[in-house]
Amino acid sequence: MMHELWPFLKLYRHQAGRLSLGMLLAFITLAASVSLLALSGWFITATAIAGLSFATAQSFNFFTPGAGVRGFSILRTAGRYFDRLVSHDATFRLLAWLRTWFYYRLLPFSAGELSIWRKGELLNRLVADIDALDQLYLRLLSPIFVAFLATLTLGALLAVFNADIAVLIGTVLMVLLIVTPFVVYQTSRKPGEAMAHQQSEMRTRLLDYLGGQAELLIFDAEQRYRDELRHKERELLQSQEKMAWYAGLSQAMLMLAAGATVLLVMYLAAEAVHKNYIDGPVMTLMVLGTLAAFEAFHMLPGAFRFLGYTRTSARRLHEVVKTPSRIVFPDEEHSLPDISQGSVTLDNIWFRYPNGLEDTVKGLSLQVEPGEHVAILGRTGCGKSTLYRLLTRDWDPDRGVIKIDSHLLESYNEVQLRQGMRVVPQRVHVFEGTLRDNLKIGDPDASDGKLYQLLKDLELSHMAHSPQDLLNIWLGAGGVRLSGGEARRLGIARALLQPAPLLLLDEPTEGLDTVTANRVMQGILKAAEGRTLLLITHRRTALEHMDRIVRMDAGKLL
Amino acid sequence: MNSAREREVYRWLGGLVSHAGLWPRLVVANGVLTGLIIMGQALLLAHIIQQVVMEGVGVDRLSFPLVGFALLVLMRAGLIFLRDFTAFKAGAAIRVEVRKQLLERFRELGPVGLRRRSAGAWTTTVLEQVEKLHDFYAHYQPQMKIAVFIPTLIFLAAASQDWIVALVFAVTAPLVPVFMILVGRKAAQASQQNFNALARMGGHFLDRLQGLGTLKLFNQAEAEGVAVSRAADRFRQHTMKVLRLAFLSSAVLEFFTALSIALTAVYLGLSYLGHINFGAASEMTLFTGLFLLLLAPEFYQPLRDLGSFYHARAEAIGAGDAILEVLELSNDDQEEAETEARSSYPVQWQGARWVLAKDLTVYSTNTGAKLLDNISFEIYPGQKVAVVGASGAGKTTLVETLLGFHEFGGLLEFDGRDAERLQPENWRRGLTWIGQNPLLIQGTVRENVTLGRPELDDHAVHSALVWSQAWEFVERLPQGIDTPLQEEGSSLSVGQAQRIALARAMAHKQDEPPAGLFIMDEPTASLDRYSEARVHQALRKLTRQSTVFMVTHRFDLLDDVDTILVMDHGRIVEQGTLATLKQDSVIFNRLLAEWEGEQA
User: Fold this and answer.
1) Nearest C-alpha of chain B: how many angstroms from A441?
2) Domains in chain B and their CATH numbers?
3) Chain B neighbors of A258, CB-CB under 8 A
4) Does B247 contact A205 at a Cβ distance shorter than 8 Å?
5) Is the CB of A540 less than 8 angstroms away from the CB of B229?
6) Among A240, A433, B576, B583, which is least packed, fewest CB within 10 Å?
7) Which residues, 6+ apart, have CB-to-CB distance to A152 below 8 Å?
8) Inter-chain residue contact A47 with B269, CB threshold 8 Å
9) How far is A123 from chain B (nearest CA, A)?
10) Would the CB atoms of A432 and B204 count as touching at under 8 Å?
11) CA–CA dist A161, A155 (Å, integer)
12) Complex ipTM
């Protein structure tokens, strides 16, 4: 179990100071509230005894305990406030840390490998997993630590007055501290795992149900599918109910333990008072102190129910980060010249996707001269987009050789390859941010004037009146949604900001009407002058200016 | 979210409680009973200490109160167990109800309405958002009531013993509603802010991960990593500023708890010593004093618990907003009234169907744009009709209208029956559809082929697969027709998926009388040329007896079609046989020329 959580626990050392401070404050708060109740109990018992005779009443020093009571109440209030402040701040910092860490861990993967994770909401799940780890500290580490310290402190406090009672209570609490997590973790693990499984099963069913509405209606399976969904939901609820059952049971057990301990302290202290081992006020102190100390244990069952979930999250993240990327680039220090000509040679390329049933590219060969403009025409599924992915090294071919400027594709380092080749992918990702931010991905140093001119060339300037308003339009979630054609042109703009010797475009005019498509193609051709252009498309719009059109079918050129 | 919307969502959330039946009330009863037991425990504890310390009674004579205390512990443990269970039941009942309503809404929206968002987005609403309602009903709402009952009870108990201590409670008691509001506002604001910040941060991070491929292509991935950490840091600073203030509210409650303990203790102590001579304390026993001291923290405990459930309220309102937004979506307000009038008797269609459309008009539910504009045509039983047109001309919308997925104006008749008076399942009986983008469900090849007809045997599945040219690759799968088709890892190509979908259409119809109406939307668009020709041949054989309505871009397959409808901008602009259209049409000939150009 620990080996799954350990790598993540190790990350906590980056916030070790704040996290320790948070735990310390949590402990101080608890200690103050235990002390407050215990001291108050001692105080009124002592005064009640002293009050029995006038002389003792007059000589009773009530200033010291009075000040103690006031002090503890202030300490408790302040402790709670700063505990919350510090622990939230530390959690936020951890969150930032974990995310950045995970981001850099994903960097070595190619776009192709990443796209597999994007499917099936896997990426969303990974983000949720990271969130679960953020909570590891607040919900797991801190409660355990506080409960442990509380046990030690209560033991020490009791030991001041009576060693026997202290040892007995200390032992009971320690056993509780070890047994509770174990029992809770063991009982809730199975339903917890079942829950995770049922949840993901319900998700796939639901995705099918929603995505396949048309099919399900036409093939008369909608009702059956909906019944199945309800059935899955019932199964999930049953697991959750079991979890709630165990949760209630563990809380109840803890309450029994707390009650039994208080009862035991009461019994032992009463006996000790009777035998004059301790004073009456000390008995009140012991009983009330024990009562208050159990506050530290209330978080424990929750913490360990949570552990199973956290473990699964940690395991999933671990699997991702320890998978090596299949696509490896050579080191930056490299004597190979940068790409300058843009000639492309494909020689007998074969490729099959991981888990694919058949080859997508089957022995494809193509020679593109420097500066040549070539269109690759073919229908959906013929493998032309795969060709794009092989040229960008989203994937590497299984067999065959790809060369750019007569050097092997895989001998260029990543910076060289990206600088030598500008691309427009079929799916353009629109980032949350302004239009300017989105464009500047293509060239971080581009001036607003240059960006605006490009938007005008690509007929994207209609969205706002002034250039500033246009570039400041907020895109992505919570902002303006671009149509398919607009997003595509945004992608083209990114690629054309810093044209490279080789331009590679996958369906750049998809979703545009013929007139716009023609104009956009003119913009592309203008930017591609003197450069090599590889255009992958299934449309024939505006292809008359290309030097050559090759047709692709079933993974081969015709 | 503005406050008007928030109130609206809150009202909706409140209205749902009736679906939870008795459970929420049981949770409240449990909380109140627990409060009474806590008071009982305090009573016994104070009594035992009084007996031992003040009266010098030995433990052996205290077995009655000790056993009583043990019994109360048992009862309290039992109540705690029941609390978790009843709270779960209350929340679960609501979630079941809301999911039911959502699924109901999805069915009403239909395949076209559902296109407004991705399946992933809908799924998040049904799974995650609905889960977030749970704690609101399980904990927050009952606690609202408990937080009123318990302090009242404790105040009454205190007042019966000593008016000064009661006064301490009473002075703070009117403050309690004030703090309820204060804590409510501030804590709700805090958890809302916290929650929003986390959601925004999560969204930003996810966005960057999803675009990581793009960032890499432009050499920006390393640089963006710095931005990711900076963004997280900015969010932290902003949120902490809000939280710093908001945590004060919980500190205030903490302060009151601590203060009431301290005040009670000091007051009692000084009274015992005779320094204070007012109030009842001068004659008060240690028993009463301890009892009051133990009650002091419990007076505020329900409020503190309520504070810890505030995030549940914020989450529920956030999630409720998203859910309500979905439930408020509708295709047409009058839909329900119309459904009433639909005939629910099963309709027996006989043989090939006869289709009549008159002034068919369809508007987009999203943008309100006209998708189909006064379309009229008639297809006689057994006729083969092809629809051609540029992309965006409305071909697919027309197909979807024939399938009953769009609300429409005008008249649509099947065999002389008004389609609007038909129940959807009657409408679709005896009709088969093969779309552009086949959808394969998560499951085996067999489950995909037998969708809708689970009773089909191996032989039927096999022959459907052979017919659709799918057998050649299904045969090579590790477990044949029982191989699961996984989504992750994309094991099938588009063309292969299309062939499975064709087999499904075939299996669905094969031992019934020939389908009355075959609707096809470029069924072979993603097949390679070789497979396309063979599938076309098979389709032709299968549909010999049926009425066929086929969207196509293959102009070389129009020879044996009876009528060609030419669409442009949502209208039928030309129609006729291949020969007549070739002679005297404008748009058709332009499309034809374009296509011929592509073939060159």
Assistant:
1) 7
2) 16-328 (1.20.1560.10), 351-599 (3.40.50.300)
3) 73
4) no
5) no
6) B583
7) A170
8) yes
9) 7
10) yes
11) 10
12) 0.82
CA atoms within 13 A on the CB side of A12: 22
Chain B residues closer than 8 Å to A57 by CB: 272-274
- Segment A446-458 mean pLDDT: 90
Give the start-to-end residue ranges of the domains of chain A: 2-322, 344-557
For range B44-54, the mean pLDDT: 93
The residue ranking higher by pLDDT, A469 or A307, is A469
Residue B305, pLDDT > 50, answer: yes
Query: CB-based contacts of A399: which residues, under 8 Å, 6+ apart?
Result: A348, A349, A350
> What are the DSSP calls for A398-465, one per residue?
SEEEEEETTEEGGGS-HHHHHHHEEEE-SSPPPPSEEHHHHHHTT-TT--HHHHHHHHHHTT-GGG-S
* CA angle, residues B93, B99, B103, in degrees to nearest 5: 150
Measuring CA to CA, how many Å separate A255 from each of A262, A291, A294, B74, B563? Answer: 11, 11, 9, 8, 81
Q: Which of A89, A244, A281 sits opposite B88 (nearest CB)?
A: A244
Residue among B414, B6, B439 at smallest CA distance from B185: B6
Residues of A in contact with B87 (CB under 8 A): 244
Region class of B90: left (phi > 0), else alpha (psi between -120 and 50), else beta: alpha
Structure confidence at residue B37 (pLDDT)? 96
| CA A537 – CA A514 distance, rounded (Å) | 14
Q: How confident is the model at residue B334 (pLDDT cuts 50, 70, 90)?
A: very low
**Interchain contact B199–A (C-beta under 8 A):** no
Most confident residue range from A69-73, B160-164, B315-319: A69-73
Q: Which residues pair with A422 in a beta bridge?
A: A503
pLDDT confidence of A45, banded at 50, 70, 90? Answer: very high
Q: How far is B494 from chain A (nearest CA, A)?
A: 6
| A99 in reach of chain B (CB within 8 A) | yes
Least confident of A150-159, A286-295, A474-483: A474-483
Is residue A220 predicted with pLDDT exceeding 90? no
Tokens 């007996």 belong to B51
CATH number belonging to domain A344-557: 3.40.50.300
Nearest to B452 among A220, A262, A428 (CB): A220
Q: What local confidence, expressed as pLDDT, does residue B40 receive?
A: 96
The fold of A2-322 is ABC transporter transmembrane region fold (1.20.1560)
